Amino acid sequence: MQSRFQDHLPPTDIIPTFPYGHVVKIGSKSVSIRQVIAVNCKTRVYRVREGDENFVLKELLPSHPDYYECTTHQALNGHPHIVRYVDSDWGTVYRDRFLLLMEYAPFGDLRDVIRDFGPLRREVAWKFFDQIISAVGHMHRLGHVHDAIHPRNVFAFSSDLCKLGDFGNGTRINEDPRFGLKMTVREARDIQGAVDTLLFLLLGFWPKEDTAFWEIFEAIEKDEEARLMLTNYDLDGVVSIADLMYIRSFYHEDFYKRPIPEAYGRLRTSYLNEQLFIWFVWR
Ligand SMILES: Nc1ncnc2c1ncn2[C@@H]1O[C@H](COP(=O)(O)OP(=O)(O)OP(=O)(O)O)[C@@H](O)[C@H]1O
Ligand SMILES: [Mg+2]
Asked: 57, 217, 229, 280: least buried by Cβ within 10 Å?
C-alpha cells in the first residue's frame, strides 16, 4: 500500500525507467530498449529496436496521461511530413504506463541538426519550410492545431526530408474564423511557428532571443532597410532581400494580412467561405 509520502512523489520516482535490453510488447511489435533519449517530468523518450530497425518509444507518465497525443498522432498518420505513428498502448500492457511507438529520426530534431551541422544551406532550409507547412496544412484540414511548431518538434531524416512530430501540445479546432478570414489566430500561429523555424535554420540561432536583431527585423518596411540589415549582419549569401521581405510579411500585426504559403494546400475553411460568398451574392 502506498504511504502518504509516496502519493506526493513525482511519477518519475515511482515508475522506474525501463532498463537497457528490456523488451516492451506494444501491438504487434516487441521492441528492446537501447537508449534513454530524454526524461522530463511528464515524458520519457527511448530509442528502441526490433531486428535492425530503430523506433522511438515515448512514455507518457500518469501525471500526463495523454490520450490526445496518441489519438491525434494516429489520426494524422500517412502524410509524408508527419512522423509515422506505429502503435500505442494505454496501460493494458503495463499498468500506469502510457506508451506511444513511432518511427525514429536518425538526425534527431532540428535543434540537434543546427547544433551538429550549423545553419543549413538556403535550399535545404526552404525545402524543410515547405515540408513543415504542408504538414501544418494537413493537420488543420483534419481539425487540429499543433500549438508548438518549433525546431524541437520537427525531426530530420535526411537533407531532403523532415517531418513534424510531438502532438501533445495542441487541441482540436472548435471554431471557424470570423466571416471572411481564412483561418483562426491559432492556425495562423502554427504558420508563424514554421516561419520562426525557417529563420532558425537559415541563421543558426533563435532570432527572437537576440533582441537587437529582432527589433531591427521587425522594423523593416522597405527593401532599403532589408538591404541594410543583410549587410550589417553579413547575411548576403544566406537570404535575399526579396526572401527577407517575404519572411517579414508573416509577422504583420494583422494576422489576416499575412501570406499563406502555397505548400499549405487547401484552406480548412475554404468550403465555409465559398458557401458564405454564394449566400451573399445571391441575396
Ligand atoms: N521520433 C523521434 N526521433 C528521434 N528523436 C526524437 C523523436 N521524438 C522525440 N525525440 C527526441 O526526444 C526528446 C524529447 O522529446 P519530447 O517531444 O518528448 O520533448 P521536448 O520536445 O523536449 O518537449 P516539448 O513537449 O516541450 O516539445 C527530444 O530531444 C527529441 O528530439
Ligand atoms: Mg517536443
From this structure: 280
Owner of C-alpha cell 508563424 = 192
Quick: pLDDT tens for 170-184: 999 988 887 778 899
% pLDDT > 70, the chain: 89
Expressed in angstroms and rounded, the spacing between residue 170 Cα and the centre of ligand 1 is 15
Mutate to test the pocket of ligand 1, among 37, 77, 102, 113 (most ligand atoms within 8 A of CB): 37
pLDDT the model gives residue 64: 58
What is the rounded CA–CA span in Å between residue 151 and residue 226?
25
SS3 call for 59: strand
Report the atom number in ligand 1 closest to the C-alpha of 83: 1
Task: Find, among 247, 144, 137, 146, the residue nearest to 201 by Cα.
Answer: 247
Examine the pLDDT at 1 and tell me if it is beyond 50: no
The winner for highest mean pLDDT among 36-50, 60-74, 128-142 is 128-142
Distance CA 151, CA 194 (A): 8
Query: Quick one: average pLDDT of 205-228?
Result: 96
Distance between Cα 157 and ligand 1 center (Å):
14
Determine contact, residues 202/196, Cβ cutoff 8 Å.
no
* CA distance linking residue 126 with residue 201, whole number of Å: 9
Q: Say how far apart CA 240 and CA 246 lie, in whole Å.
A: 10
